[in-house]
Design goal:
Blueprint (H helix, E strand, L loop, with lengths): L5 E7 L5 E7 L10 E6 L2 E6 L5 E6 L9 E4 L20 H18 L7 H20 L7
């Protein structure tokens, strides 16, 4: 193998926000864990691919004993209604592939992007290149 088993990055945004990104293809006990945790001064939001129909939301500024609510996806959200008639019934990976294929074909037929674009891919590659450069020089690298 000639790729990394684990990578992490520290990010500083122009707004002053800070972030940590981590990726591992070998972390024990974390199979298929794609998600995010965002903590702010006025709340937090959490999402995990393994529970894709749920969003965890905590509002308020307490750092301890902050209540967190679970919001369930429902028929009014995105393409959910095409697959499930009511809230809190999970969609699956195959359902997502059908949505992606539909968006791709619509993009071709209509000449308008539905979903990620080539620009998004280029920006992602630029950020990854900056992370590699940062590791090589041992310092911060700016991304436009």
């Amino acid at each position: 193998m000639e790729n990394e088993d684990y990578a992490s990055s520290l990010l500083r945004f122009a707004s002053g926000a800070r972030a940590t990104l981590e990726a591992s293809r070998v972390a024990v006990g974390e199979q298929n864990n794609y998600g995010f945790d965002i903590h702010g001064t006025k709340g937090a939001v959490f999402w995990d691919f393994r529970r894709m129909g749920e969003l965890q939301l905590g509002t308020g500024s307490k750092y301890q004993d902050q209540p967190v609510s679970t919001l369930f996806v429902g028929p009014a959200d995105g393409d959910y209604a095409a697959f499930q008639p009511g809230s809190a019934t999970s969609m699956g990976y195959d359902d997502l592939k059908v949505i992606e294929a539909n968006n791709f074909l619509r993009s071709i037929a209509e000449g308008t992007p539905h979903g990620s674009t080539l620009d998004d891919a280029v920006r992602s590659a630029t950020a990854l290149d900056a992370m590699i450069e940062s590791a090589a020089i041992g310092g911060w690298v700016s991304v436009a």
